[in-house]
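Example 3.2
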Amino acid sequence: MSSLIKISLLLLVISQQTLGFEQTLGKNHFGHITFDQDMPVINKWITCHPDCSSKNNISLEMNNEIKPFLEILDSRGNTYENYLVSSHGEGHELEVHYRSRNSSNEISQIIFRSDIENRFLETIIQSNNEVILKFDLQNHLSEEDIYGLGGIYNGTWLVRHFWEMVDDQGSEKISNLRKIDIKEGSWVGARTRFWTFLISPKNNNLLINEINELESRFQLTSSAEDGLHQIRFYFGPVNTELNRQDPELRELIYSALWDWLRQLCFLIEWIFIWLLGLVGNEGLAILLLACALKVLIYPLNRIAEKWQDDVNATQSVLQPQIDQIKNLFSGEEANHRIMQLYKEKNISPFYSIKSLFGFLIQIPIFIAVFDVLGESIYLLEKSFFFIDDLSKPDQWANLPLFIPFFGDSLNLLPFCMMIISMLSAYLYTDKSLNKDLLSSQKRKLYLMSILFFALLFTFPSGMVLYWTASNFLQLAQMQIKKALQ
């Protein structure tokens, strides 16, 4: 950092007339962030999606009255109450200053400065010694409460995004009792499914020296050579808007996936948001997303279907002869004769691998849609027909008892999805398959229908709505193909 910048920051900290005038701390402070009148404590911080000025926004509040989510302590772990509090400037240029009345205090001054959208909070702490920041974020970030496999969205996770060089960046969870250096450009904090609270140093280094992942608590120690500890705080939703707030924060989105799969997620999310802007209804946008993706991957599916037909035709020819060999011979002799059969027919023993291509196409799409619709805050508290909240199971009816793994509510969409899948299996035909192979294929499809029903029963209804629509489109495509043959 240049000397000019350091001098400017120092003048900002020590001056009482930085922005032209000084007044007592008002009630609204930064609009959505309010402070204590006697000590440098954030009493309340409200964030919203998409923003707090929107008509039907969704808000989340961290309140210090429940328990302190942030404490600023000196190097000895002490805090002080003897501060002179004032605010400087007005509107978006407002700053809140806490100046210590006691010259023996290690922390002589703390300044809070909010950005225009009230999501970043710039903080400058003046101290020649180390400063301790303690965070307790458990139950502050609106945790989910979903049963069964849908419970993967429950809880609060401590995370960090790091950036050190071009080839060394990413995002990860942090675990208990692990010391981590947080440098400028890196972030650390906690997140839930939809919300996050993050901290980043600007002109100093932070060391995480105490972590309790189970209770979402951690402690940072800040050191600054010039005595000015500059820190940024972010509190808000986890969505692509993070890229506008700070491009480095984009790494927090879909962070568990490989980069190429993350890019697929961003593409699908972009299509979904575009469709949402077009129709203005989240449920309808999901249905259109299923149609759009079906069209986009249709050429690949056509290739996969052709390869599957080739495998089915080959299998129909070979399977009766293979069954006959197995009935007459066993062990090494049976294997030898089967391999000889492949050689006579000029067919590779691995011919059936071609049929996996269609399945492999679906896996990345499945994972990407799974993550996009599972983590999309756009679905939070949004209704669609009998679904009250697309971000949760549809909970069509309450059950009189609790069923392990499935919970105490009856979800209708998974049943619709399963019925459509089973109807597709029942109507499935393939002229290239003999009767036995066709029956075997149908049994596999029935089994897959039941498996997906059990797996997705407690997942968010927006996700299940997509797969229900996708299965319906597959059924319609199959019937149209049959009619044209």
